[in-house]
From TrEMBL:
Record keywords: Membrane, Transmembrane, Transmembrane helix
Region spans: Disordered: 1-26, 763-782
Domain of life assignment: Bacteria
Keyword Membrane: yes
Entry-linked InterPro entries: AB_hydrolase_fold
Transmembrane segments: 127-147, 192-209, 255-276, 288-309, 330-347, 367-386, 398-420, 440-464, 507-527, 554-573
The species this protein was found in: Streptomyces plumbiresistens
Record-linked SUPFAM superfamilies: alpha/beta-Hydrolases
Biased composition (Basic and acidic residues): 773-782
Name recorded for this polypeptide: Integral membrane protein
Length: 782
């Protein structure tokens, strides 16, 4: 360990330190994929040594290879393998299972990065980012409003104010005016002020988690270098110096969202009391104080929206500054308003009693309406961007971002409605003592059964298509494995694996149908909630009894489905906290969903790439400059995405001396289609041009990895022809036992892996970048 650390310390970022012998040592830097692994498995050796890094992410070598640069003759003819292990960034700690509760925030953050490719539309791109940030802000307000609905409305206002409900729950007795004999806390305003501690505590928890992860992830400074032109060359923004350094933006958004959450709590407490004071004949002093408090809340809300709208990401340089104290102290100002609202609500008000619901219908209805309008506007902006530079491979013709934003809003609505419905059922088992949650949440529950029906129909169609593809693939399997094919079960199994792998390409259709159906059903639920408050006489005169019965059945079924889903959600998180295998599964979700920086929501799970990409960049940059050796970065699955992002961050001179080997890579199949502005054809072509050489391996049975579709000077194409999977159809001399169908795993087992790695290393020469063939104009060909 100590010898390894001393060797690394000789490599300076500027290349000014003493170099080891420049003997052409070859290095293979391995980067694992989703789910993680151990360095022993990656290096195929039980004795490994940590070269650099910590318990969270580190680079390992075999014990025999620690001083490989000092003894080049012993390693001539084979590369020195190094393993970068980053799985603890996402799935190493059991507490990360609780990040499931932040799922809507993560999804809306993904929508920010799904914008279409656009050139010369700077203002439109900024408008797109602004709309996504505002959508993320509404999700924060929705979450806190749901907690306020549970704590303030259902518990403190409705249940504690009703004798039958309060008697069933003794822990609410001191809040009930009928149980506690008019105790000090039994006044409605004081009950609300005390219950406000619950959403305030949740806000503090979100702030704390965001601040802690911000210190660990966003504050990791990447390698400093000069910016490269990317507007004309088509290079992706991932190569900009400040792309993986979102310290300033996340701090700014954290302040704004924390203030918005506290203002939501203050509004729930203060406006409830102000509504009573504004009645005719009310106390003039309290009426004036209520209006003054409402004006202050409006002014603070305008300030929060201005902070969110004022500034986006700074990517062209390392922005080491933080915003002014006015922005950083915004949460403190909101907290002061919350305290003032609690004091105002706790004032003695004779005649004020709990009756009906708090004004939650207007709140949730307004949030749903704003979210729908933002998603529609986002779709219009995305369409304009797509028309400027159409990309036929882009998912949903550039509308993937708005569709995913709609799903984030739907997730937030389902989670808030599920919590409210289940708490209401728990507090009032008979369903007759308290009014229950707002009408809109009930109507939102009614859209769940129709949505499930649509998804079941779509799932049936996809299953039918897969069956047809499996039948067609059986003939292809027989052609790929010439000889005897007397094992129909074996042929069918291989064909089924190939057909199932194509389901990944149907994901845009699934998202499009789900988001469109959700938008239409959500609009219907909003209209239904707005028109449901009819007079009893008018309701009695309705003739569509069948429709009404179906609606009531859908509402009841949807309510139970939401509750069941929420219980399963919490149970899964609890199981993942105790079960390492389940925690690993959840870690895979975060490996895919938290690759991108927090650009739209500061309470989303942190971006592990803001640690992993600088790690890889520093390692490749310092080792290459110190040794002038040959380096191949070898990435599997999500590791190939990290490898590509790290290669973009290298200085051009070092980038020309690096080979890229990817296998099971989603670079084009997933990232290129869903994130075209950053992994589209122009960006991947620029990557292939910038590195010395790039080879990609894929299988027809792999549901994640696929070809990148680029031609180049490493051969006819960047992609090698699809690898056979399994390696042999039946028993052979090389495979006396049946060869398994590997799918997305164990690419190193195929002989093609070693062939391509040797081919890449043979192209690289110590100290001198490989030369590319030139065309007639003298420019290097890509």
């Amino acid at each position: 360990m100590e010898r390894a650390q001393r060797h690394v310390s000789t490599a300076g970022a500027d290349g000014s330190t003493t170099r080891p012998e420049e003997s052409g040592t070859a290095l293979e830097l391995l980067v694992h994929g989703v789910g993680g692994t151990t360095p022993e498995e990656m290096l195929d050796d039980p004795r490994t040594v940590r070269i650099t890094g910590d318990d969270t992410a580190a680079v390992f070598r075999r014990a025999d290879d620690v001083d490989a640069e000092s003894a080049p003759d012993e390693h001539r003819g084979r590369p020195v393998p190094e393993a970068y292990v980053w799985c603890n960034l996402t799935s190493g700690n059991g507490t990360r299972a609780l990040w499931l509760l932040l799922l809507p925030f993560m999804v809306v953050n993904l929508a920010h990065w799904m914008r279409p490719t656009a050139r010369g539309r700077t203002r439109t791109v900024r408008l797109y980012g602004l709309l996504v940030r505002l959508t993320g802000l509404t999700l924060t307000v929705l979450l806190v409003a749901a907690v306020c609905e549970v704590a303030l409305d259902l518990a403190a206002w409705q249940c504690a104010g009703t004798s039958a409900c309060a008697e069933r729950h003794s822990w609410l007795g001191f809040l009930s005016p009928t149980v506690s004999d008019d105790g000090w806390w039994s006044r409605p305003g004081r009950r609300l002020a005390l219950a406000a501690l619950v959403p305030a505590a949740l806000t503090w928890l979100l702030w704390y988690l965001s601040h802690r992860t911000w210190s660990a992830y966003e504050s990791q400074e990447p390698l400093s270098r000069s910016p490269e032109p990317d507007e004309e060359t088509g290079r992706t923004a991932l190569g900009r110096p400040g792309f993986w350094y979102g310290r300033r933006l996340v701090a700014r958004l954290r302040a704004a969202h924390t203030a918005a959450a506290l203002l939501t709590v203050a509004a729930a407490v203060g406006t409830s009391a102000a509504r009573f004071d504004h009645r005719p004949g009310g106390p003039a002093l309290l009426d004036a104080l209520g209006r003054l408090l409402e004006a202050a809340l409006v002014a603070a809300t305008v300030g929060v929206v201005w902070v969110v709208c004022r500034r986006g990401r700074s990517e062209r340089r390392l922005d080491r500054e933080l915003d002014a104290r006015l922005v950083r102290r915004l949460p403190l100002a909101a907290l002061v308003l919350l305290v003032l609202a609690a004091v105002y609500a706790g004032w003695e008000r004779p005649g004020w009693e709990s009756a009906g619901r708090l004004p939650g219908d207007a709140t949730f209805g307004g949030i749903a309406l704003v979210q729908g309008l933002l998603v529609i506007a986002l779709g219009a902006v995305a369409h304009v961007l797509y028309r400027t530079h159409p990309d036929p491979r882009a998912a949903m013709r550039g509308l993937a971002g708005p569709a995913v934003a709609m799903l984030a809003c739907a997730l937030g609505g389902v989670m808030s409605g599920g919590v409210s419905q289940r708490v209401a059922d728990w507090l009032d088992g008979t369903g007759t003592n308290i009014p229950g949650p707002p009408v809109l949440l009930t109507w939102q529950a009614s859209v769940i059964p129709p949505l499930l029906v649509v998804l079941l129909v779509l799932g049936g169609w996809l299953a039918w298509r897969t069956w047809l593809l499996r039948r067609a693939a059986m003939a292809t399997v027989e052609q790929d494995y010439p000889g005897r094919h007397n094992d129909t079960t074996r042929t069918r199994r291989i064909a089924r694996a190939r057909a199932a792998a194509t389901l990944t390409d149907r994901a845009p259709l699934l998202v499009a149908v789900t988001s469109t159906t959700t938008l239409l059903l959500g609009a219907a639920a909003l209209v239904g909630a707005m028109t449901s408050d009819k007079a009893p006489a008018e309701a009695a005169q309705r003739t569509h009894s069948f429709v009404e019965g179906a609606a009531e059945t859908a509402q009841a079924l949807g309510s139970w489905l939401i509750g069941l889903g929420f219980i399963l959600f919490v149970t899964w998180g609890r199981r993942a906290y105790k079960d390492p295998s389940a925690r690993r599964t959840i870690g895979i979700l975060w490996d895919v969903g938290t690759f991108w920086p927090r650009a739209a929501h500061p309470f989303a799970p942190p971006c592990y790439a803001e640690r992993a990409v600088p790690d890889l960049t520093w390692r490749m940059e310092t080792w290459t400059r110190a040794t002038a050796g040959r380096l191949v970065i070898s990435g599997h699955s999500q590791g190939s995405v990290l490898a590509a992002a790290a290669a973009w961050q290298l200085t051009p001179s070092v980038r020309k001396r690096v080979g890229l080997l990817t296998y099971g890579s989603p670079l084009e199949r997933l990232y290129g289609r869903w994130f075209p502005a950053h992994f589209g054809p122009a960006a991947l072509s620029a990557l292939h041009h910038d590195v010395d050489c790039w080879r990609n391996l894929h299988r027809p049975t792999d549901p994640i990895g696929g070809p990148v579709g680029l031609t180049g000077d490493c051969g006819p194409e960047v992609d090698r022809e699809p690898l056979k999977d399994p390696l042999a159809y039946g028993r052979t001399d090389e495979h006396p036992l049946p060869a398994p169908i590997l799918g997305h795993s164990d690419y190193q087992a195929d002989p093609a892996f070693a062939e391509e790695r040797t081919r890449l290393l043979a192209r690289l020469h110590p100290g001198v970048p490989a030369q590319r063939p030139q065309d007639d104009s003298g420019r290097s060909s890509a």
